[in-house]
Design a protein that fits this description.
Blueprint lengths: L8 H6 L34 H4 L10 E6 L10 E2 H8 L3 H18 L8 E9 L2 H4 L2 E5 L1 H10 L9 H9 L3 H6 L3 E6 L3 E6 L8 E5 L3 E4 H6 L6 H13 L3 H8 L9 H9 L1 E2 L10 H4 L17 E4 L7 E2 L5 E6 L4 E6 L8 E4 L8 H12 L15 H29 L3 H17 L6 H18 L9 H22 L5 H23 L1
Parallel strand pairs: 4-8, 11-14
Antiparallel strand pairs: 1-2, 1-3, 3-4, 5-6, 6-14, 7-13, 8-10, 9-10, 12-13
Helix pairs in contact: 3-4, 15-16, 16-17, 17-18, 18-19
The protein binds S-adenosylmethionine.
Length: about 525
């Protein structure tokens, strides 16, 4: 599963034989060209910058900062390298040369040996990105290179269907009114997004682009030891460098608690890209949480959070009618409906894992997002008896679901795979009632695993296990898991990739069994 990436013209130019691999693939960079991950990111000073840099998407010279990582005890080495030199120099070319000198410093630090000692983060802004929406990234050069290699900055024309639609509509104003949603004030929640027309299940309601993409590690590293001012300076510059229309939207976003404007905006509006429940989903939490070594050393596997100025207006609900899907190779956030939505209904997503109990949800939202939920399932502030019943019923169903799931795990742990499968089917019936379709990827993945275990090990007490049948079922469920993850996340999300690797494993096993007969 080595997936060659679309090769950016610059990468091809600099390293004709270079093959980059998808970041989720098991074998990572095998590139031979100098310093993988740093190609085509910075202007090359050795050649005439006017001609060579034409293809770079950046509207300003990239600015880099190295932070001593937490593995190295507190070091005063944090510096905001080229930003100061940019402001102290007037000519663009000397600004480029200063960022290039920070490149050579970071290049030598990015090899595997010294990785983790000092991590450079750079600010890259592309103003033309997505027809003038613009975007600013604060990421490691590796990640910037990865995104460039994916073709994220090559703006492709929209699908012909959209062109046809927009050519029919006469003006921008009319195009706006064609949108399925609008942003209005919502009682008790600030602003929110409501449907303007009937929306079908599975429809893409909103497509939004990142105003900011910021490395999680950068947020963590600057969340400690008095480095907050470095973060705020870098983020403020990132916002200031955006085109006016997007910049104004960002400054106009809701602010959370905190005395610093930039942190207050990021705290409530930044979103993790892998969806709820995986990695960080609140920047607020990230700035305080101790780091977990979740990612290995794989190429460009840096967690990134995004600020999407329209998506940021979508409020939380404990029973959401929509979900987010990040499409990595377009760096685009899509909002997709779980069920039909009527005009005037608020569009909501869940900021928490859906299986949490009401009290855990409250606690989580308070702790990580610092608000008290006013959604229909949360009646902490409501005396309405019917709402209370709704909450109680939902709570008892979700508690039951958790119990069923635990029983299933117990059966699995004891080797009773057939029983575990039956119990999990029961779980699905309840999950459907509770509107927990977002968990379908998890469901099919677990089913596939159980069938595979059954096929390989049998089940005590069941001497007559149809192992071939179980393997067929494992393959079927594994396929469904991939489909579910593609729908829930995206074709290249981490979960999708894991499901795909599992599917391949089952597929090969089935093939081998077939040949062995
Ligand atoms: C990402 S913003 C959502 C848009 C926001 N309402 C606005 O006006 O821009 C998240 C913030 O909205 C508010 N919010 C979101 N969902 C809510 C809910 N279910 N109940 C109450 N407040 C909510 C909270 O203040 C939260 O920090």
């Amino acid at each position: 599963h080595e997936l060659p990436l679309s090769t950016h013209p610059l990468l091809r130019l600099q390293c004709p034989n270079l093959t980059l691999f998808h970041r989720h693939a098991t074998s990572t960079h095998t590139a031979t060209c100098p310093v993988p991950g740093l190609l085509g990111i910075f202007p090359d000073l050795n050649t005439d910058s006017n001609t060579n840099n034409l293809n770079l998407p950046w509207s300003f010279p990239p600015k880099c900062m190295t932070l001593a990582s937490s593995s190295k005890k507190s070091s005063p080495a944090s510096s905001y390298q080229s930003a100061s030199s940019v402001s102290s120099t007037s000519s663009a070319s000397s600004a480029y040369s200063s960022s290039s000198s920070s490149l050579s410093a970071s290049a030598s630090l990015e090899n595997d040996e010294s990785r983790g000692k000092e991590i450079p983060y750079c600010l890259f802004t592309s103003q033309p990105f997505r027809n003038g929406h613009g975007t600013s990234l604060i990421v490691s050069p590796n990640t910037a290179s990865h995104l460039l290699g994916l073709g994220v900055f090559e703006d492709r024309p929209p699908p012909w269907k959209w062109i046809r639609q927009s050519s029919r509509s006469r003006s921008n104003e009319q195009q706006r009114t064609n949108l399925a949603y609008r942003i209005i004030n919502v009682a008790g929640k600030g602003k929110g997004v409501v449907a303007t027309r009937p929306i079908k299940q599975g429809e893409i309601i909103m497509v939004d682009y990142p105003a900011l993409l910021i490395s999680e590690e950068f947020l963590r590293e600057t969340g400690r030891e008095g480095k907050g001012h470095l973060r705020r300076r870098m983020v403020k510059r990132a916002i200031e460098q955006l085109p006016e229309i997007t910049r104004e939207k960002v400054w106009g976003l809701m602010r959370g608690p905190g005395k610093y404007e930039v942190d207050a905006i990021m705290g409530v509006n930044l979103k993790g890209l892998e969806g709820v429940g995986s990695g960080a989903n609140s920047a607020l939490a990230l700035l305080e949480e101790p780091r977990t070594e979740e990612h290995g050393e794989s190429y460009a596997a840096e967690g990134v959070m995004g600020l999407f100025a329209e998506v940021a207006r979508i409020n939380h609900s404990c029973r959401p009618n929509a979900r987010l899907r990040f499409v990595e190779n377009r760096a685009t956030m899509e909002v997709i409906s779980y069920r039909p939505i009527s005009p005037g209904e608020e569009i909501s997503i869940s900021y928490t894992a859906l299986t949490l109990s009401p009290s855990d949800r409250h606690h989580f939202l308070k702790q990580n997002h610092q608000f008290t939920c006013h959604c229909p399932l949360c009646t902490s502030l409501s005396d309405d008896p019917s709402a209370k019943t709704l909450t109680a019923e939902s709570h008892s169903r979700r508690t039951h679901l958790q119990e069923v799931f635990d029983t299933m795990l117990h059966a699995k742990g004891e080797g009773f795979y057939q029983d575990a499968i039956n119990i999990l089917k029961d779980w699905l019936d309840f999950a459907e009632v509770e509107g927990l379709l977002p968990l379908m990827g998890e469901y099919h993945g677990t089913m596939a695993e159980l069938y595979l275990l059954l096929a390989e090990r049998g089940s005590p007490g069941d001497k007559e296990v149809d192992r071939e049948g179980a393997l067929r079922q494992a393959l079927r469920e594994a396929r469904m898991a991939v489909d579910a993850w593609v729908k829930l996340r995206s074709v290249d999300g981490r979960k999708t990739e894991e499901a795909r690797v599992f599917l391949e494993k089952v597929f090969k096993l089935k093939e081998r069994r077939g040949k062995g007969k």
